[in-house]
TrEMBL record:
PANTHER family: SMALL NEUTRAL PROTEASE REGULATORY PROTEIN, TRANSCRIPTIONAL DUAL REGULATOR HCAR-RELATED. The keyword Isomerase does not apply. It comes from the Bacteria. Residues 1-58 form the HTH lysR-type domain. It holds the Pfam family LysR_substrate. It comes from Winslowiella iniecta. This is Transcriptional regulator.
Length: 294
């Protein structure tokens, strides 16, 4: 039994005429009659009484009609569900972001807009360092990760720059420049210890800070390493050093930390969306399309 047998049976039961049923289906009357005969042979009993005026359901036909109607509804629902999944309107979207990326207001805005556009897609969100996120992309455990731009990415990982934002100096409250008016020179921090992420947890923010210092003529002395943005600012608040962080981190407003803009041209750091090109789901494609509209 195939779906066309069921469709033809339902149409004939409704029209009570081979001629009218065949016309609505769009086939000739002999092929319709043959398909109905095949269905009756498979069931083992006639489903219709043929008369000069048309056809009427037999007892077997009425029983078959009652049981088969829910099947057609389920089949239609299954087809619609498959189409929605193929278009990325349902399913799961697995997102990851670093601590600094997740605090940029663009990221929650993207998540909010996607949720409004695709309410049937369930989003799983993970926070980790950039190296862990990239590894999760490679292992197909994430669909899209927001990371600070890396100088290079593993083969198979593609990325799209979402934005660039300036780095600002994070100073302890007791630092001589904390109460300075206006912007400060980065070179004025050359004798301070810099609180940076350890290389094994990610190179983007660390690399951007070191490069910025080198561009103004000094190698930053490294103080106590800290793996996450909150721990970096906590160490700065404790007076153990200074750091360079993305401007969007100012919203943390951590007690004991003063954020100062750097004089032009300020060093910049990028924010990128990365994904595994060989394992890209339909919801991920829709999400990325939204991100690229920014």
């Amino acid at each position: 039994m195939e779906m066309r047998h069921i469709r033809y049976f339902l149409m004939l039961a409704e029209e009570k005429s081979f001629t009218r049923a065949a016309a609505r289906i769009g086939i000739g009357q002999p092929p319709l009659s043959m398909q109905i005969r095949d269905l009756e042979n498979e069931i083992g009993y006639p489903l219709f009484n043929r008369t000069a005026q048309g056809v009427q359901l037999t007892e077997a036909g009425r029983a078959f009609l009652q049981e088969i109607k829910p099947v057609t509804t389920l089949a239609s629902d299954a087809i619609a569900s498959a189409r929605r999944a193929a278009m990325g309107e349902t399913g799961i979207l697995r997102l990851g972001f670093t601590g600094t990326a997740g605090l940029n207001p663009v990221i929650p805005a993207c998540i909010r807009d996607f949720g409004q556009a695709f309410p049937a897609v369930h989003m799983n969100v993970t926070e980790a360092n950039s190296l862990a996120l990239i590894d999760s992309l490679l292992q197909n455990q994430l669909d899209i990760a927001f990371i600070r731009e890396e100088s290079s990415l593993p083969a198979g990982i593609d990325s799209h720059r979402v934005l660039q934002e300036p780095l600002v100096a994070a100073l302890p409250l007791a630092h001589p420049l904390a109460k300075a008016r206006g912007k400060v020179e980065l070179a004025a921090l050359q004798h301070d210890n810099f609180i940076l992420t350890p290389q094994e947890t990610g190179t983007s923010l660390r690399g951007a800070a070191i490069l910025a210092c080198r561009k103004v003529g000094f190698e930053p002395p490294e103080g106590q390493p800290a793996p996450h943005i909150v721990s970096i600012l906590s160490v700065v608040a404790a007076g153990l050093g200074v750091s360079l962080v993305p401007e969007s981190m100012r919203q943390l407003a951590l007690s004991g930390v003063v954020f100062k803009h750097l004089k032009s041209p300020p060093p910049m750091i990028g924010l990128a969306a990365a994904w595994n090109a060989s394992a890209f789901s339909a919801p991920a494609s829709n999400f990325l399309a939204l991100v690229k509209m920014l």
